[in-house]
Amino acid sequence: LSFPTTLVVKQETEGIIIFMVAPTYEESEPELDSEHLLSYSSPEPESRDQQDNFPVSESQRKTDSSKKFVKCEICGKTFEYRSKLTRHMRVHTGEKPHSCSTCGKRFSLMINLKTHMRIHTGEKPYSCGICGKEFRDQSTFKKHMTVHTGEKPYSCSTCGKSFSQKPTLERHQRSHTGEKLHSCGTCGREFSQMINLKTHMRIHTGENKKSVSCDTCGKTFQCKSNLTRHVRVHTSEKPHSCSTCGKRFIWKSGLETHVRIHTGEKPYFCNTCGKRFNKKSGFESHVRIHTGEKPYFCSTCGKRFGKKSGLETHLRIHTGEKPYSCNVCRKEFRDLSTMKSHRRIHTGEKPYICSSLWLCPGLDSCPVSSQSG
């Protein structure tokens, strides 16, 4: 895309006239830096609109405050350029005057259309000087450069973890607060990350039918990488090992959670009671104690649960499944905790001590049980 240019001129107080060559279309590129500004002798600008394309000087701000900014009457945001206000108004109106001649997609800004057109043309004008990788837009190129520099300027004020990109930090911070910004318009379920919402939406749209499936158990996945990780459940492959104790894990996330046992790190913080957690799942379950939320419900009787494990145990009432058995008498149980309690009948283990015996070490027996006898 090529556009005609116009010479925009502005008189400074020191008698120096500054000009730049700028696109005439309304959605011009952001202001150029000082390298693109030249000293030049020229008549006064032809129109007032041309003056509005430049920020006012400090001296002008002091002498005529009414010429400082133009203001959006809807949200009150101010701009130094009238053209920027015009572009900003499209946020409120939803206007997208620029359309792609190839696929018809529309944009509110011409610069965004130009970037989009590179998808069709294959143009990648931004190239990494280190690895040679090419990019369509400058923002993606800048993000890529942090891979080489190792720069991580954005740090979490809660746990101190650093990130190379601000959006990544913002997503991470929601793991501490439990904030969930994205909700499903069909069932109302909320998610902290948009990618998780998009994955969830496939349940409603039926896109799950297009997924890849496990040849062993038939479980389906939206992407092949998730299937590859899942297959390790069947092969028992555990490629991730703890450098401290040597324990191995199927998934990298499992290793990262395990390492916190050694470091003592508890990055998940409850804003209500101050309790900290080393696992996200434990944190999310805990938060529901305060909110009363019970997102898991039984499709048979309608009973609701705050934890998925609670629902899974409850479902065995309806199915009759008893997966835990005593290795002494072979009695079967629906849940692990009941089975462990039962086993103490055989072992004679009594792990719970009366608090009176702790407070008074000289006592030989529990005074409460003596009185009841």
TrEMBL record:
Residues 32-62 are annotated as: Disordered. Pfam families: zf-C2H2. One of its GO terms (biological process) is negative regulation of transcription by RNA polymerase II. Residues 70-97, 98-125, 126-153, 154-181, 182-209, 212-239, 240-267, 268-295, 296-323, 324-351 form the C2H2-type domain. InterPro entries: Ikaros_C2H2-ZF, Znf_C2H2_sf, Znf_C2H2_type. One of its GO terms (molecular function) is DNA-binding transcription factor activity. It is found in: Nucleus. Keywords: DNA-binding, Metal-binding, Nucleus, Repeat, Transcription, Transcription regulation, Zinc, Zinc-finger. GO terms for cellular component: nucleus. Belongs to the krueppel C2H2-type zinc-finger protein family. This is C2H2-type domain-containing protein. It comes from Oreochromis niloticus.
